[in-house]
Amino acid sequence: MTPHHRVNAFCTAYGLRLPILMAPMAGASPPALAVAVARAGGMGACGALSMDAAQIHAWAEHVRTQTNGAFQINTWIPDPAPVRDRAQEAQLRAFLGQWGPDVPPEAGDAPLADFEAQCAAMLTAGPSVISSIMGLYPAAFVTAMKERGIRWFATVTTVAEARAAEDAGADAVIAQGAEAGGHRGSFDAENAEAGMVGSFALIPAVADAVSLPVIATGGIADGRGVAAALVLGASAVQIGTALLRTPEAAIPASWAEAIGRTAPEETVPTRAFSGRLARAIRTPYTIAAAAQDSPLPAPYPTQRALTGPLRREAQAANDPARMQMWAGQSAALTRPDDAERMVSALWKSAESFLGQG
Ligand SMILES: Cc1cc2nc3c(=O)[nH]c(=O)nc-3n(C[C@H](O)[C@H](O)[C@H](O)COP(=O)(O)O)c2cc1C
Q1: What architecture is the 3-354 domain classified under in CATH?
Q2: What is the DSSP letter of 177?
Q3: Cα 23 to ligand 1 centre (Å)
Q4: Which residue's CA lies nearest to atom 21 of ligand 1?
Q5: Ranges of residues in the chain whose predicted pLDDT is under 70
Q6: CA dihedral in degrees (217, 13, 30, 147; nearest 10)?
Q7: Closest alpha carbon to 192 in 299, 315, 105
C-alpha cells in the first residue's frame, strides 16, 4: 500500500481531512488546542490523566460544541502500587528542598485521580477514540468501548507491545519513538530505558508486525517528518511538542521559548520529575538529579507526588531552571504559529514531499 492509500483509508475511517492528530498531553491539552486542530481537519485530543469525571465531561462538551470533529480522550493504565522506601524518600525530600519549598513527609502519599472513574467518564463523554498509554485496558473496558462504537488507539513503544495491543483488540497502535517529548509509554515502567527505540526503526517494524493502522508519534515536527513517517508505514501522525509552541497550548512562556532553542541532544530521558521515564529539556535540576551523589528517584507516582511542591513553585515563577519542561528531540524544528495554521502547513509541506500518489 502507498502512503496515499493508507492516509485516505485512515482519514475516511475517522472523518478527517488530513492525517494529523494532536497528541494527548496531560496538563497541556486545553480544549482550544483540540478545537484548532479539528478545524484544520485533524483530530484533537485530551490528556485526562489528572482530570476527574466532571472535568472530562466539560472538556468533551466544549470541543463538541465548537467542532463537528472526532476527538480522542486518553489516560494512563495504572502501574502496580510502588514499593515505598521511607529512608530514600527522606533523602529525596532533603534534596528537593534545596530546589524548592520544603517537602512534608506525607507529600509522597498524594493520590492519583481514580482510574475506574476516569474510564466510566470517558465512556459517557462519548469520544470517537479512547487511547491508552503505559499498558492495555482491561478486557471488560475494551468490550464496553466497542459496544458504544468507540475506537481504541493503544500507545506502544516496542514490537512486542504492538502485538499485545493487537491481540487485546486495539483498533490502531500509536507507535511512540524514543524521540518523543513527555512520558515514554513502556508497559514495564522499571525497564523503560531498555526499550528506547527510535521512530526510524520502530515505525516500519510495527507496521510489518501488526495488521492495524499505525499512528507514528515522537520527533515529528515538520513536513519532512510527517512525510517520512507515512513512507515508513504510518497511516497518520500524532504531534506533541510542536503544538506546545502554539498560543492555544497556553504553556508557561519560558517553556515555550525553550522548546524553540533546544537541540535534539539538549533533551534528556529522566525520571526526576515523576519517577516514570520521560523526555524533558535538560536543565540545572535534571542535571543535579542525575548526579552520582543525588538520591535515586522514587518510583512513579511517589516521585511525582514528592516533586509536586517544586513543580508548582517553578511553574508559578516561570523558572526554566527548575520547571518540568517536556519536549521531544525535534523541538527546535517548530516555528511558533497558531495551531490551525500550523497543522495545515505541516500537511501542505508533507504533501509536497510525498508527491501525487
Ligand atoms: C507535555 C506533554 C504531555 C504528555 N502527556 C501525555 C499523556 O498524558 N498521555 C499520552 O499518551 N502521551 C502523553 N505525551 C506524549 C505524547 O502523546 C506524544 O507521544 C509525544 O508528544 C510525541 O512526541 P513529540 O513531542 O516529539 O511530538 C505527552 C507529551 C508531552 C510533550
Answers
A1: Alpha-Beta Barrel (3.20)
A2: -
A3: 6
A4: 240
A5: 357
A6: -110
A7: 299
Locate 15 and state its grid cell.
472523518
With cell 530521558, the residue in question is 269
The cell numbers describing 132, all together, are 491508552
Q: What is the structure's pLDDT at 357? A: 67
What is the CA(252)–ligand 1 centre distance, in A? 17
Residue ranges around ligand 1 (CB below 6 Å): 23-26, 28, 47, 49, 74, 133, 155, 176, 179-183, 217-220, 239-241, 326, 328, 330
How far, in Å, from the CA of 75 to the mean position of ligand 1? 11
Domain boundaries, the chain: 3-354
Is residue 180 within 8 A of residue 218, CB to CB? The reply is yes
pLDDT per residue as tens digits for the range 197-235: 999 999 999 999 999 999 999 999 999 999 999 999 999
Give the N- to C-terminal CA distance of the chain in Å, as an integer: 10
Q: For residue 75, what is its C-alpha cell?
A: 489516560
